[in-house]
Design a protein that fits this description.
heterodimer, A: mainly beta, seven-stranded mixed β-sheet, B: six-stranded mixed β-sheet, 12 strands, 0% helix
Chain lengths: 117, 113
């Protein structure tokens, strides 16, 4: 089966510019995650969707970051305006919906490497 | 909030050497534990996981990990590494309340041929 798709793979912008990343999850996966991975650190969850609803966005810097999953399939993460510290790899992951609190394996995409100058 | 510590940032081994990567977590409740691997140029992928039962879990490619509850540890082991094991390894915890994955900072493993 096709994996999680992300685009673009690389993006270079100047601070204060805006940028958007796109993610298409594995077909049939109801849950979608966006992670931020800063160099030298592990991935950090930004936002989790269940279908088109937000499950958790407690670690999303909402003054500049936004995300949507309007039709419950693909998703867009936007940063506006970008800061130098936003330089990172942005990972998208998807999984089947949790069943009775059970964990379903998350499958990760290749990521988008963002450089803010 | 839960946290995960991986004390080895970069490990360099020769082929056939034994491997042990440390992982400690800070959460007193029920946890589910994972090791993920990212090979050069590839996606992050699941190596193995512990949910319950036998604390010694076996994963793909000959890797295993042991959950020691009293030490809050979930160390990754492999008796004999290969050059193809060169990758970055992440330990992660799924805590009972948040149902979120919290990752450690990762360990870069370099295996010399």
């Amino acid at each position: 089966e096709a994996g999680v798709a992300q685009s673009p793979r690389y993006k270079i912008i100047e601070k204060r510019q805006s940028v958007a990343f796109w993610c298409n999850p594995i077909s049939g996966h109801a849950t979608l995650y966006w992670y931020q991975q800063i160099l030298g650190q592990g991935p950090k969850l930004l936002i989790q969707f269940q279908n088109n609803g937000v499950v958790d966005d407690s670690q999303l810097p909402k003054d500049r970051f936004s995300a949507e999953r309007l039709k419950g399939v693909d998703s867009t993460l936007k940063i506006q305006p970008a800061k130098l510290e936003d330089s990172a790899v942005y990972l998208c992951a998807s999984s089947h919906a949790p069943t009775s609190g059970l964990y379903n394996e998350q499958f990760f995409g290749p990521g988008t490497r963002l450089t803010v100058l | 909030a839960q946290s995960v510590s991986q004390h080895n940032h970069h490990v360099i081994l020769s082929e056939a050497a034994s491997l042990e990567l440390g992982c400690n977590y800070s959460y007193g409740g029920t946890v589910n534990l994972f090791w993920y691997v990212q090979y050069p140029g590839q996606h992050l992928q699941l190596l193995l996981k512990y949910f319950s039962g036998d604390p010694l879990v076996k994963g793909i490619k000959g890797f295993e990990a042991e959950f020691i509850k009293s030490k809050f540890s979930f160390n990754l082991r492999k008796p004999s590494v290969q050059w193809s094991d060169t990758a970055e390894y992440f330990c992660a915890v799924l805590s009972g309340s948040a149902r979120q994955l919290t990752f450690g900072s990762g360990t870069q493993l370099t295996v010399l041929p």
